[in-house]
Every structure is written in C-alpha cells, then in structure tokens.
Design brief:
Elements (H helix, E strand, L loop, with lengths): L2 H24 L4 H5 L7 H15 L9 H16 L1 H10 L10 H14 L4 H15 L4 H11 L5 E6 L4 H5 L1 H11 L5 E6 L4 H6 L7 E6 L2 E5 L6 H11 L7 E2 L4 H5 L7 E6 L7 H9 L4 E6 L2 H7 L6 E6 L8 E5 L4 H10 L11 H7 L11 E7 L6 H12 L8 E7 L4 H5 L14 E6 L4 E6 L13 H12 L8 E4 L11 H19 L2 H44 L13 E3 L5 H6 L6 E7 L4 H12 L8 E7 H15 L10 H4 L3 E5 L4 E5 L51 H10 L5 E2 L10
Parallel strand pairs: 1-2, 5-7, 6-7, 10-11, 15-17, 16-17
Antiparallel strand pairs: 1-3, 3-4, 6-8, 8-9, 10-12, 12-13, 13-14, 16-18, 18-19, 19-20
Length: about 750
C-alpha cells in the first residue's frame, strides 16, 4: 500500500495543473491598460475612455487590420470594469470572467480525473454525470439580468435551483433531463442556478427550499411549488402563467371581428387542432410572436369546413388585410416549432404595416451601412382618420401588386400626429414641404442617418385615371439603381412606441405581477404570518372607521345642541351654556367656598331678582374665556338670601368699620373672587375704590369720610335708603374683563380674615 501517497500526490498535481490551465486560459489582457486608465478611475472616467476608443477603433471607421480585435477587447474591458462585482473580483483575484464555474475547462476538471479513476464504480459515475449536467446549464446572476430577463419577453425560461450536496436535487436530475428533452423543442429554455454560488439571486426570486423550479415570463419570476416528477402539472403551471387570453377561442360568431381586427397593426393567425385543448407548442409560439401576430384557437366545425381544414392534421393559417383567404398556411400532424417560427417570421407584417415603433422600423427598414445595395422603404404620411383610409388602401393595392421583392422595397404608412418628431426630421431645412398625404422614400445608412426623397405630388386615393402609381413606380425604379442618389440626407429621430402601456397600465401590470410572484414565493411557513398581517391591517382599518363614525355622530349631536340653544337664547330658563353657573346656597356653600382646594377660586356675582336678566349675560360673556381653567368655578348669589353672610364677611375683612349700614340695592353687580383655602377675597364693583384714584394726601382724610382703600362702597355708609345712587344695571359690569385680567396678574387688593362665616339656611 505504499503507492497511496504517491497516487494522491499525483492527483493533486493534476488538479493544480487543471486549475492553472483553466485560469490562465481565460485571462484577458489588463483591461485598465486597454482603456488607458488608472486602477482608481471612476465610472465616468471609464465610460469617457470607452467612448473615445470606440470612435477611433470602430471597424467601419478605422483602416487598421487589427481594428476588429482591438474593438472587441475594448468592449470586453468596458463590460468588465463597468460591472462593480466583476471589477472587484478582477482587482482582488485577477478573474476576468464571472462564469468561472461554467467554463469547459472547469467541467473537464470535474470529469476527467475522477471519471478515469472511478470508472468501475457506477454509483460515483452517476453522481458526477448529474453534477456535470447541472454545471453545463448553470448561469450567474449577471447572466440572468443581462440575458434571461430581456429574452423572457419572447421566450419562456425554466430555471432549476440546486446545490452540490443536495440529494433531492440529484434525484431530480433524470426528471430535469426529461424536461429538457420535452420542453426545449417547444421553445422553452431550461437553465440551472447554483444557489451556493448565487445566494442573492435565490433570495431575490424567493427560493425557500431546494430543489426548486422558477418560470420566468416577461421579466417576472413565478415559483413552481409542486413536485418536479410530474411533467403534466408543470405544463399546466406554464399554461396558467401565460398572459391572460393570449389565444382566445374563435367560433362562427366572432370570426369576422377577429380577422378584421388588423387595425392594431398585427397579423391574424388561426390554429386548428383535432383536439379540444390547444397544445403547449402553439401557446409558446403565440407568446413568442404576440407583439406582431394575434392567434386564435378554432373551436367550430363550420370554420373548418369553410377553410377546408383536414380533420386529422394540425393547421395554422395567417391572414393580412385580405380576410377572405390566408396569405400562408401549414398543415402537419405535428408542426415543429422551428417550422412555425420560420413561417411566421416570414409573414409577421401586414401588406401595408404601420410604423408604430422603432422595432417595426428596424425590421422593415434595417440599417445597411455595410451593404452597397439599396433597400428602400416607401412611407405614406397620413392621420388616424377614416378619411385617409382610401389613400392607404390605394398604397396597399400598389404594394400587393408591386413587382419588387421584399428584399428591395418595403411599403408602410405612418400617423403624423403620433410620430410628429420623426416626420418633421425628414423635412429639409428651408423647405415648404407639406408632409400630409405625401410619400417619402428612405434608405437607412445608419441608426439615425438616412437618405430620402419626397414625391413631388400628394398621393391620390383613386386607382383609375391617375398617374400616381406610375410616378411612384418610376421613382422606385430610378432610385434602385446603384448610380442614382436620393435628393436629401439627414438624421431621423426614434419612433414613439404606440403600443406601449401608459403609466397607470404599467403600474397595474407591475403590481399584479408582484402580487402573483409574492403568492408563488410564499411557503407554508410564510402563509400564517402573511394572513395575520393582512388580518391585522383589516382590523385596524375597521376600528379606525368605527372610531371616525362615532366621532362624526358626536359632532352631529353637538351641532344639534348648539342649534337648539341658539333658538332659545331669549329664554334664560332653557339656556344651557357650556360654562356652568352655580347658585350659592347653604347646601352648596362648602363645595363652592369653604372646602375649595388650594389654588382654586370661585368667581361670585351678587344680584337680586330684578337684575337677574340684565346681569347674567354680561357676566357669562366676561368669564367665558376662562371656562377651561380647572381651578375656577363660577357662581351667583341673590342678595336677599345671603345679605347677612355678606355683611358679616365685610365686617371680618374690615375690622376698622364695626358698623356697616349696607343698602342691598347698592350691592347689586358686586363681583367677589373667593379663595377658600387662603381665606381672602378680591372685590369688584362699578364704584369700588380700586376704580378711582387716590386723593393727593390720604392722611388728611378723616375716618368719617369714605376711605377709598378700605373696601367700602359708595352708599354702604349712607343712611339714605333711596335708589338714586344705584347705577344702571346694564352698566355695572363694564369693567369686569379688565378687572379679571388684573385679578390673575395678582395686582388687585386682597381682603384677608380669620374664618368663613356661616351661610344662612333660609
């Protein structure tokens, strides 16, 4: 057993040699050196250098024999350095290709040494063949974005996700081979992705477990959740994900409408099968040509007999503007996909198509910068109006009877209103050419560079008794000659895509595709959280709606109360303002005065039964701004009921005045601010001393005279019982608002005492 170390040493050497060969074989010349930039160049500098070199080394602009190879190197270097991931990989490891795991050298490394050493072990051979099968079809995330997504607009892709040590993936290998054998002839491409090498792509496509198959259609990925062993279920899955009503069923009622729908600039195709359901190969073909051909599946024996279709063969008919007979047909038991593509590609345009997008222009009038032979494009400028239908019909008749082949002359028309920029770019500077209903003949030399010529007269709509046909034919014959040049030369603008979806259509399509993709990507472990989130959102919305409804009801009730209170303003007994006024009585005396909390005060109005209606409204108006102050309460007191209490309160606060002769009528309109905790009050009255100025010398005032700072009222000490000195009741509270401001500022006089007198019970 001494040969074992030498054997493994030899095997290691072989592996190293294969690695070096596979690495060195793919090395490219230094891309920085090719572009002539330093290694810390920014993206803008790389692009600027690339554009300058392309202009110099383009094969059409350079006579250098090595221009083609140099141009390819410049392009490859730009692609490498413009991709941040590939540039980083090159800077760190010198790798110039991002498909290191997909190289033929890499495949041979996996296959040759071990296959030769273990050929007598069939089990190992079987596994290596499976790994090789997956690696041969493997793609990277960059290839997915650059190749698969753009091509998925016309070709469906099935992508199988796997890893090296995934035994279910190995068991699925035979079924994957069957998928390739069955689906690739139908036009469906099969690819694989190594999840370990491309974890970001697997995460982006919502791959939750391995093995997994993803269907890519028009840039949208759909995860197949069923088992890979069932080919019929996978085919049904592909059918369901195809665009909605891609191939509608046609019967005797809608046949004419379907064939006459070529106004959308698409050829019409009819598919006949001796089966009730259309096979996948025709559905995939309809998807591939859906931008140029609209297919319908025939479900009527009457239509079969009308077009004399064999009952046991598959048949495809293609129609242009002439709906009475097809322009081409094919009938076979199983029509190969390649045959279908060839026939449809050769007949995918109407006899007189409309230039509705840049793709149509490229297909009908391709650039011929490398060909000296002319290929003319005859274009009629019209408007989207039925009045111009005879003119288009006349040119269509001319095109159908034209002696020139499609490789020499193509006929088309254009809407001036939708492609105004394109048409106006063909009007020579300083020319008075009116393009409407005129024919222009183009010869495209480059993407935007054209040579063109306008017919001198407008295109007539009558076929007989006019020379428009002869003039057009003579112009085409003259311009097809190699030595004949077109009159004008200029640059055209790109055509507007008339079939493109609007902003809202794109948003709706993207939203539906995203929701569908999210639904397909949800596994069993994500369904319950997703349902709980949706239920939570719905519950929050319902609760919010209920709260808004209750708030609206409350607002309506408040409005009704305000309306009712406004209608009863004259009746004080029914007047219920938001600011509540309490009547000071014996049973409320403790709550309003004696037991007030620290910092709280009661604003008290003294009135009598006669002045009630006149004093309550102005008092309410004056204290209304303070209604939200929780430290204030508002009350009123009838002087007849609380006169003894009021007299005793004044005697306690004015000890220098033992005998006060109070006239009850003069007390009407007095405002007291009572502080129950500190045992003091502030006083307001129309003739209160604080509203008057002091006399110049207060010491000369005798005790018998009225002391303006003592708190006495004019008339309190008067022995007169007449009402002559009582102010008018409506003017008693004129200065109350100003006094309240001074009260809360703390500038009013405070009258202190030792205890609160009892309030009379009667």
């Amino acid at each position: 057993m001494k040969w074992v170390p030498q054997f493994w040493f030899l095997q290691s050497c072989i592996i190293v040699l294969f690695l070096l060969r596979s690495t060195l074989g793919e090395l490219l010349e230094d891309p920085y050196k090719i572009l002539g930039i330093h290694k810390k160049a920014s993206t803008q500098e790389i692009r600027r250098a690339y554009l300058q070199l392309v202009k110099s080394w383009h094969p059409d602009k350079s006579d250098d024999p090595s221009a083609s190879d140099k141009f390819v190197q410049i392009k490859q270097s730009y692609e490498l350095l413009s991709d941040p991931e590939r540039r980083k990989r090159y800077d760190l490891k010198g790798i110039t290709e991002d498909d290191f795991y997909n190289r033929p050298e890499k495949t041979s490394f996996y296959k040759d040494p071990f296959e030769e050493l273990f050929t007598h072990h069939n089990h190992f051979n079987f596994q290596e063949n499976d790994i090789t099968f997956f690696h041969k079809l493997s793609i990277t995330s960059r290839q997915y974005d650059k190749q698969v997504v753009p091509k998925s607009a016309t070709t469906p892709f099935l992508i199988f996700f796997y890893t090296d040590w995934c035994f279910p993936c190995l068991r699925a290998a035979p079924h994957c081979r069957k998928l390739v054998e069955h689906l690739e002839p139908l036009g469906i491409n099969f690819m694989t992705v190594h999840s370990g090498h491309e974890p970001s792509l697997a995460k982006r496509l919502s791959i939750n477990g391995l093995p997994c198959i993803v269907l890519v259609l028009d840039g949208n990925a759909y995860v197949y959740k069923d088992t890979i062993t069932s080919l019929s279920k996978l085919v049904e899955f592909i059918r369901q994900k195809m665009p909605y009503k891609l191939v509608p069923k046609i019967n005797g009622k809608n046949l004419e409408d379907f064939l006459n729908g070529w106004e959308d600039n698409k050829v019409r195709g009819l598919i006949f099968e001796p089966r009730e359901n259309m096979r996948l190969r025709y559905l995939v073909t309809a998807y591939h040509f859906r931008h140029r051909v609209t297919f319908g599946f025939i479900d009527s024996e009457v239509i079969r007999s009308k077009f004399q279709i064999p009952p046991d063969l598959d048949t495809v008919l293609l129609f242009n503007e002439n709906t009475s007979r097809p322009m081409t047909s094919v009938s076979m038991k199983d029509i190969p996909t390649s045959t279908l593509h060839h026939i449809i590609s050769s007949n995918q345009y109407l006899a007189l198509p409309r230039l509705s997008s840049q793709d149509v222009l490229e297909a009908l009038c391709p650039c011929e910068w490398h060909r000296p032979r002319k290929r003319l494009c005859v274009i009629l400028v019209t408007e989207e109006s039925k009045e111009h239908n005879p003119h288009r019909e006349a040119l269509r008749t001319f095109a159908q009877n034209s002696p020139y082949g499609l490789d020499k002359v193509r006929f088309a028309y254009i809407y001036h209103g939708k492609q105004m920029d394109f048409v106006n770019s063909l009007i020579p500077e300083g020319s008075l050419v009116e393009p409407m209903l005129r024919i222009v003949i183009l010869w495209r030399r480059d993407v935007s560079h054209v040579k063109y010529e306008w017919l001198s007269e407008k295109w007539e709509s009558r076929y007989d008794f006019n020379d428009s046909f002869q003039k057009l034919e003579s112009s085409i014959s003259r311009l097809l000659k190699a030595n004949e040049a077109l009159s004008y030369e200029g640059f055209i603008k790109a055509l507007f895509d008339e079939h493109a979806k609007g902003i809202w259509g794109r948003i709706l399509s993207k939203t539906l595709a995203t929701l569908d993709s999210m639904y397909d990507g949800l596994g069993k472990e994500q369904i319950l959280p997703a349902i709980s989130i949706v239920a939570t959102v719905i519950f929050i919305m319902l609760v919010g709606y209920l709260m808004a409804y209750l708030v609206r009801l409350e607002e309506e009730d408040i409005k009704k109360q305000k309306t009712n209170s406004g209608n009863n303003n004259n009746d004080f007994s029914n007047y219920q303002p938001e600011l509540k006024l309490h009547e000071l009585r014996a049973e409320k005396y403790n709550g309003l005065v004696r037991l007030l909390k620290p910092g709280c005060r009661t604003i008290l109005l003294i009135l009598d039964m006669q002045s009630r209606q006149q004093l309550i409204p102005p008092f309410h108006k004056a204290v209304w701004p303070y209604r939200k102050n929780k430290s204030l309460m508002f009350a009123y007191m009838y002087v007849e009921r609380g006169l003894s209490w009021y007299k005793e309160l004044l005697q306690l606060a004015l000890p220098d005045e033992p005998d006060l002769n109070i006239n009850p009528r003069n007390c009407v309109g007095t405002i007291l601010a009572l502080n129950g905790h500190r045992k003091y009050f502030c006083m307001f009255h129309a003739k209160h001393a604080e509203r008057k100025c002091r006399k110049a010398n207060s010491n000369s005032v005798s005790k018998s005279s009225t002391d303006l700072e003592s708190g006495a009222f004019i008339g309190f000490e008067s022995s007169s019982e007449s009402d002559e000195e009582v102010l008018l009741e409506e003017n008693l509270l004129d200065g109350l608002s100003n006094w309240l401001d001074r009260l809360f500022e703390g500038t009013t006089r405070r009258y202190h005492f030792n205890y609160w007198p009892d309030f009379p019970n009667k």
